[in-house]
Write a structure and sequence with these properties.
The structure holds 2 protein chains of 2 kinds.
Chain A (H helix, E strand, L loop, with lengths): L2 H32 L6 H19 L2 H22 L9 H23 L15 E3 L5 E3 H23 L1 H11 L1 H6 L4 H27 L5 H16 L4 H21 L4 H15 L9
Antiparallel strand pairs in A: 1-2
Chain B lengths: L1 H18 L6 H27 L7 H14 L8 H23 L5 H20 L9 E2 L19 H24 L1 H11 L1 H6 L4 H27 L1 E2 L6 H14 L4 H21 L3 H15 L7 H13 L1
Antiparallel strand pairs in B: 1-2
Helix pairs in contact in B: 2-6, 2-9, 2-10, 2-11, 3-4, 3-5, 3-9, 4-9, 6-7, 7-9, 10-11, 11-12
The chains are: A mainly alpha, B mainly alpha.
């Protein structure tokens, strides 16, 4: 592999890893704080991508679509939490798995009813449609760099939110002892709703960003969900730092797996997971 | 009283299963066989979920390995021997479960759910991406396996009725085997692990070994179901190992009520019935299935197996 190719693959790996982080961070927060295993989290990524597709058709530009789509996704998440997920916190994992599995079926068929089963494309916004030439024949699209930059900004924002704000303090406290936080007069139900809606918005944002690169297709959420599980297992449940590191590791393993051993690329990610399980079964960044 | 009622119900069900293929409806005979195969699959998962307390979300992997092993062990241009492919599939699935179990049993709780799913997905990619089993197109079983032992031909799987009875016999055997297993010291130990693993360890049980054994047995039985599925339909695709399959079998077990062997069988039948009815109504039948699942979790805790008790309580309260 020559240098420009390596560089391109490296950038792709980082960009893919960062996108995964958007999904996995919400997943790990919802696990870590509410103790809910949310199989439908991949569906929110899909919802984001289809929102981007529909709203881009409506407004003519992906950027407007994203600006409109994020509050929509947040509201959608808050509504779902109130309607369904709030009933799950005290149930066991089995029932959580079952209910969220049912939700996946509903979301997939809803998608099929509304948009059909075809693959749809979304245009890159004109502002970022250029490419940076690397050699005579190779160039790198600006939009992919924009994806990475947006994800990095969001990751930084998320860390600030959790480490430096009052809400973040409640979130961290709530993940340790829900009843104690409640006894201190804090409305933990409201906090849960915000965290859940935030997770949904993050996943949907990931889907919106990815829409022009990966296009919009049936089953796209499930693929992301399972890889995000791997990320959470490697990173450790509830650890946003772990999710970030693990996302990048998986991004690298997947991308370079595809380049180096194409036939076994699907396996690379799982082999990394198996190795981590042997080494640290509780994930790399699990506290305690 | 209650025991007798359930025995009568079992007897009625057994007679119905034996008598049904005489109705000469090829479609429903095949459907019945499919439901019974899925019942074996659900029973195998219930051993893990209901009795050992291990929520596996990757059980389709062993079903799929059993199905693929059946096809791959069979010669291309001759009928295979049933007495080779069926045990072969069971052993292959059991061994796979043993190896994967070594990894997944290092985790617990939510981790266990995710890791079993991830390993199942890994197995899915082995069959989907490599040429081992025809890739994403799947692979045909060209001939029904022959049950011949030497020159003796005890039954013929090519005949739909006999095939259905053969499946029924294996369902009964699986049920009986699990019931006996659960009464054995081993069964008592795994149920103990489900209720309090810490205490079982303190009592001197090597709990991980027990869990691993349960995981391997469940995998082997799922492999049996997969093998029968391949024989029934003569065709296997990676879809058999997909996580939808894992989700569906979990649904059957929970629908029937976990920790109840009869419940698992009932759950599998209820699932197949729902699938038939819904897909007859609309091609978007998964929407209805999803709705049923969500409603079942919210309004029917304990599954179908808990229904008689609930009804009795409701009537008892009504009658004073």
């Amino acid at each position: 592999m020559d240098l420009p190719t390596f560089l391109i693959q490296l950038l792709n790996a980082v960009q893919y890893g960062l996108l995964l982080f958007l999904v996995a961070s919400g997943l790990t927060l919802i696990f870590g704080i509410m103790g809910v295993i949310n199989l439908a989290h991949g569906a929110f990524y899909m919802v984001g991508a289809y929102l981007a597709f529909a709203l881009t058709g409506l407004t003519g530009n992906l950027l407007f679509a994203i600006l409109l789509g994020i509050p929509l996704a947040f509201a959608f998440g808050a509504l779902l939490e109130w309607l369904l997920y709030a009933h799950l916190y005290k149930r066991d994992h089995l029932e959580q798995v079952l209910l969220t599995y049912g939700l996946i079926l509903i979301f997939e068929e809803g998608r099929s009813l509304l948009f059909g089963d075809d693959v749809h494309g979304v245009d890159v916004p004109a502002l970022f449609a250029a490419s940076i030439p690397l050699t005579d024949t190779l160039s790198y699209p600006v939009y992919r760099l924009v994806i990475s930059a947006a994800c990095i900004a969001l990751a930084a924002g998320l860390f600030l939110l959790i480490r430096r704000t009052k809400l973040g303090m409640v979130i961290r406290a709530g993940s340790h002892d829900r009843d104690m936080v409640q006894a201190l007069g804090i409305d933990i139900d409201r906090t849960y709703r915000i965290v859940f809606a935030l997770g949904v918005a993050l996943a949907a944002f990931g889907g919106m960003l990815a829409a022009p690169v990966s296009s919009v297709y049936p089953g796209m959420g499930n693929q992301v969900l399972i890889i995000s599980f791997v990320v959470v297992v490697i990173g450790g449940i509830g650890s946003v730092t772990g999710a970030l590191v693990a996302s990048l590791v998986i991004g690298l393993a997947d991308t370079f797996g595809k380049v180096l051993v194409p036939e076994y690329a699907g396996l690379a990610v799982y082999l990394v997971m198996a190795a981590v399980l042997l080494w640290r079964p509780e994930g790399i960044f699990r506290r305690g | 009283m209650r025991l007798r009622a359930s025995r009568v119900a079992l007897l009625v069900a057994a007679v119905a299963v034996i008598a049904f293929p005489f109705t000469d409806s090829a479609f429903y005979t095949e459907l019945l066989a499919k439901a019974m195969i899925l019942a074996i699959f659900a029973l195998s998962l219930d051993l893990l979920v209901g009795y050992t307390g291990l929520v596996s979300f990757g059980h389709a992997a062993y079903f799929g390995i059993g199905a693929y092993a059946t096809v791959l062990l069979a010669p291309k241009y001759d009928p295979a021997s049933l007495w080779l492919v069926l045990p072969g599939a069971v052993v292959a699935a059991g061994l796979a479960a043993l190896v994967i179990g070594l990894f997944v049993l290092r985790t617990r709780g939510i981790y266990f759910i995710m890791v079993t799913l991830a390993f199942a997905q890994m197995v899915f990619y082995v069959f989907h991406d490599t040429g081992l089993g025809g890739g994403s197109d799947g692979i045909y079983l060209n001939f029904k396996p022959s049950a011949a032992i030497g020159s003796l031909q005890p039954f013929d799987l090519g005949e739909a009725r006999q095939q259905c009875w053969f499946v029924a016999a294996l369902l009964f055997l699986t049920w009986w085997f699990l019931a006996r297993l659960l009464e054995s010291p081993f069964g008592r130990a795994i149920v103990g692990i489900r209720s309090n693993e810490q205490r079982m360890r303190a009592l001197g049980f090597a709990t991980v070994r027990y869990k691993l054994a349960a995981f391997a047995i469940a995998g082997a039985l799922a492999g049996l179901a997969g093998s029968l599925y391949a024989i029934l339909f003569g065709f296997v695709t990676p879809e058999l190992l997909s996580w939808h399959q894992s989700g569906n079998v979990l649904l059957m077990v929970i629908l029937g009520g976990i920790g109840s062997l009869a419940g698992s069988v009932g759950g599998a039948f209820a699932f197949v019935a729902m699938q038939e009815v819904f897909s007859g109504w609309t091609k978007h039948w998964q929407l209805l299935m999803g709705g049923v699942i969500v409603a079942a979790v919210l309004f029917l805790p304990g599954g179908l197996a808990a229904l008689p008790g609930r009804v009795r309580r409701a009537f008892g309260a009504g009658g004073g």
